[in-house]
Design goal:
Blueprint lengths: L5 H8 L4 H31 L4 H27 L4 H35 L7 E4 L2 E8 L3 E5 L5 E5 L2 H4 L2 E3 L7 E10 L4 H13 L4 E2 L7 E6 L3 E10 L5 H18 L12 H5 L1
Antiparallel strand pairs: 1-2, 1-5, 2-3, 3-4, 6-9, 7-9, 8-9
Length: about 280
């Protein structure tokens, strides 16, 4: 087995001067700017083609990985002109850095690459990852940007995919199932209530209905009230909460006209019960 001459490797690294480092930083900055420009135009184009919006957004993280990989390869191969032995030594230094204290950073980068390559989730998906829930706006090498229902921007570390379950509400599709619950008095006309709720769902301008995306109305019986659950799909996952609000508002407007009321509060007097 050939032995690595450490003196030769170190001598090779001595050729790296400040100008080489500055050029390398300039290439990295250009790669970042180029990735942002590509992401900007892909996002704009995806919004213009609604049907294929999520397909185009899926390309964004892939383009970032490609641009950064080409930039790093060019720096090592052309700017630093590293030989095979130098690359081996560099790999060892990176391994040492991971062991010293950068393990989380490299875990996030590795997880980001895995997310993109295995398509764990896509840009535009509604996902729940750990304690976070929202729409995926961007998949970076270190973190995933989520916009929550409260319009808050959350940076979720990519390495959560190694330790937490990830649930996707649409898995790359523009349609997504949205569920809502409505509770009524126990003695209400259940058949009429279910009919009203179904009518409100199927006439919503946000709903998407097909043979594989049906509207389902379920009835649950509780001790002091009855619960109605509607399961339907929205045409655009971004309309999930607007759809729920629209259906709930129109359902209750019709309920009040037909005399269907919400359940009354039942307060248990534990003091008297103890007696």
């Amino acid at each position: 087995m050939a032995e690595v001459n450490l003196d030769t490797v170190v001598t090779g690294f001595e050729q790296i001067d400040p100008n080489t480092v500055l050029v390398s930083f300039a290439i990295i900055i250009l790669a970042v700017i180029l990735s942002k420009i590509v992401a900007f135009f892909l996002t704009k184009f995806s919004e213009m083609t609604w049907r294929y919006r999520l397909h185009f957004k899926t390309i964004i993280p892939l383009s970032k990985v490609l641009i950064y990989s080409l930039a790093i390869y060019y720096i090592f191969a052309s700017i630093f002109a590293l030989s095979f032995n130098q690359l081996v030594l560099l790999s060892g230094l990176i391994g040492a850095a991971i062991g010293i204290g950068l393990r989380n950073l490299f875990e996030n980068i590795a997880a980001g690459i895995i997310i993109v390559m295995e398509k764990t989730y896509h840009v535009g998906d509604r996902i729940e990852m750990g304690d976070y829930y929202g729409e995926v706006k961007d998949i970076g090498l270190r973190a995933t940007r989520l916009v929550t229902p409260n319009d808050e921007l959350v940076l979720a570390p990519n390495n959560l995919v190694f330790t937490q379950c990830v649930a996707s509400g649409n898995s790359g599709s523009s349609e997504m199932m949205a569920m809502l619950d409505i509770y009524i008095e126990n003695d209400s006309d259940v058949d009429l209530a279910m009919k009203i709720l179904r009518e409100a769902v199927v006439t919503s301008r946000f709903v998407y209905i097909s043979p594989t995306r049906p509207v389902v109305i379920l009835l649950n019986d509780y001790p002091f009230y009855k619960g109605l659950k509607a399961r339907a799909y929205v045409n655009d996952l971004r309309d999930e909460f607007v759809f729920r609000s629209d259906v709930t508002r129109r359902t209750w407007n019709e309920f009040y006209k037909k005399g269907i009321k919400p359940p009354k509060a039942h307060i248990v007097n534990y003091g008297n019960a103890a007696e």
